[in-house]
Sequence to fold (201 residues):
Amino acid sequence: MAKFFIPKIEFNPNDIDSDIILDSTTITANSSTSRIEVGMRITSSNFPSDTLVVGVTASEIEVSNGATENGSAVTVGFTEFIDFELPPKGDTFGESLRHVGTTNTSKSGLTFSFTDYIDKTFKITFSHMTQEIKEKLEDFLVTWAFFGKEFNYFFDQDDDLTKILTEINARSKRNSFKVVSRRGDGLNFSWVTTLNFRTFS
Fold:
């Protein structure tokens, strides 16, 4: 049976120096919690993978699952995220390559070209998004991606090995969201948009 890859995006990562207690859902923060928000996901191994932030104060972070170990002054990672529900349209692993480099000419007239990096771009169409995912994607674009900030794109949300560090290609700044259909209840709409990503190697 063919496997359909459903992607996810993680952005705005934050690491907090913390004290944690086995099975406790309260994290004692030893550094500022000002960038931690309700709804963020924990990315470190000292909590279950589906753990979310449910409350934040200046010194404590309340989360949805208990810690899997005791720890003093340990690093706990947090990130904002978008989990898509369906695979995107098109070839999700297709990409175009462009060598970016410098060219130097010696005094004798010989020309030397050096590749600084390979610019990879790929275009993905996200279709039949719920209103909730559409709004999260819009917020991600206008508060993070359109400022040129990097983020992690996972071709398969269940496989961390499919993660690549990515940014939005300038062409995506002209993207739009379109209504494509009503969902099953006849009241809620589905949305579609196409984004251009670029990554480096």
